[in-house]
Design goal:
Belongs to the gamma-BBH/TMLD family. This protein has 2 domains: 84 residues, NE0471 N-terminal domain-like, CATH 3.30.2020.30; 256 residues, Clavaminate synthase-like (Double-stranded beta-helix). It is 25% helix and 28% strand.
Length: 379
Amino acid sequence: MTRPAKDDDRLVDVSGRKFHPAWLRYSCPCARCRHPESFQKTSDLSDRPELPVADRVELDSEANELRVDWREQPAHRSHYPLDWLLLHGPGQAGEQGAAGLDHTVHWDARTLRARGVRWHEAEACGTDGGPWFDDLRSVGFALLTGLTPQGLERLLTGLAPVFHTEYGRQADVKAVPGAEDLAETESALPAHTDYPYKVTGPLTQFCYYAENRATGGEFFLVDGFKALEDFRRDHPGWFDLLVSSPVEFEQVYTSWRYLYRVRRPVITLDGRGAIEAIHLGHSHAWAWDVAPELCGEFYRAYHGLVRHLGDERYRWAHRFADGECAVFRNNRILHGRNAFDPRTGVRHLITAYVPWQQLESRIRFHEERRFYFSPRERK
């Protein structure tokens, strides 16, 4: 059923983008509608059952703002910076990534060689942005050199809160007797993401080599998003099956008396159907929540993906020296290692994690602070 358009249905055009008056009134960023210091919304529109009506709309390109006078008592005028509207308007997250932060560059071994990898001096890496943040946003990992235990702690503190595991704020990864995790053995580890058996949210993972003298143990990274894109293209049926079929990931920690178990698909998509995350630790994957008649096809899909991720054309490998560190987005970048011989020397890896949202939110704070603070406050 259609009806004639009324005043409250007239869309406002800003640089080809359409905004409904209801969206604009609800999103008014003025000091009357949100707290001046916390910036949280204070306006209550629940006592206004009718849709808002814009009496006057003015687009001021010189002032870079849209001004709207609303038909209400008391009178109210809203001011919207045009770049704020284009960043936050309906549909923008789909085109620009969450809050405009999508600068993703997908890679495999060939394209990464052509692009080149950058090493960043750890002392020059701050926690308010910079080139190492840019690498994390684009290729999903950053490489640091000259890092010390104190320098690692400085970075973690600057991006706090730190994600604590059973091992504490940081974990020492060495080959030890009675290992409760395969990482604490000398065995090779295939491409995987950490903690598929925990509900953690995306993590920024630090793998810092305090000492690396053992023979073997080369460390490698894989861009899961690029590998999954190719897998989706070549095996669309298998891809869809892995998206829709939960796998039971588990880990037993005898010392702490925990049995972790999470059921989740290996591949997670966002609302637009784009790849959002990969959760894969084959050593933790057990039961499948798959109908019996689909188990054969799921087996082929799952093992097809494992073989695909193990293809060296997706792998960037490096033998890390003392003081070198890989930092990466855990739900995108898979990592692994070759086997090593602990009899030939010490291999001491320190791992630590902070929520990926902390890094993402720090970037967003600096990119959007102009919408919240005066020029003096922004300094």
